[in-house]
Description:
Layout: H1 3-6, H2 20-35, E1 45-49, H3 55-63, E2 68-73, H4 76-89, E3 96-99, E4 115-118, H5 127-132, H6 138-141, H7 149-158, E5 165-171, H8 177-180, E6 185-195, E7 198-207
Helix pairs in contact: 2-3
The structure holds S-adenosylmethionine (SAM).
Amino acid sequence: MKWREKFSVRSKPEVYPPSEDTWFLTEFLSDFLSRYKIEKGLSGIICEVGIGTGYILICLYLAYPYLRFFGTDISPMAVSLSIENIKEWIPDSNAYFCCARYLDCFNPQNFSPDIIYFNPPYVRTSFDEYIQSDSPIVRTWAGGPSGVIPVTKFLDGLHRFKFKYAFFLSSSLNDNSDIMRYTQFHIVEMARKKIEGEQLICYQATPRS
Ligand SMILES: C[S@@+](CC[C@H](N)C(=O)[O-])C[C@H]1O[C@@H](n2cnc3c(N)ncnc32)[C@H](O)[C@@H]1O
């Protein structure tokens, strides 16, 4: 059974609804977690940047209730909707949601997640549309002229944190060479999925030692 048939959450016009990219990343992370053993001594913490409706985080929480889940979103509407959605599916959840840019609400000194992931705004747009759009929904998908401006900003802050695995999405239509220039990280393609007119790509960023 596909993810979209298994599970649904409430949406709102201003919040990015679960879509092909959401299901692709959910499937990738769910497969990854089923292979990945939370070893003794690791934090057991999973952190999502840009939670939207909370769909991915809630799917993973339902499957792995013993892990600790944290989520951020720049949109207050996304954060309040995620809280509503998680209350419906997991009334006694202890997930923590925060309205913030990227990982800005966490202190790198005392927050070391095992896994960080981000389904970013990744659609190529003009620079003006990227920075000046008044529409909350446009801001959920506008990625600027390269399509990867939000990803590069995410990577700019990521190196301050100790983490084991970081994953993010992009599209085959983007200028992904901008991502590869990050010398602090080794960036590797992990999975790819063809959808209408493009391929979604899941990358892993590993700190270079
Ligand atoms: C493509 S949507 C993905 C939503 C959800 N994770 C999903 O897969 O359905 C991108 C999300 O990232 C959020 N976002 C955009 N820029 C952000 C930033 N700088 N920090 C945190 N969240 C951000 C948007 O508000 C939006 O909810």
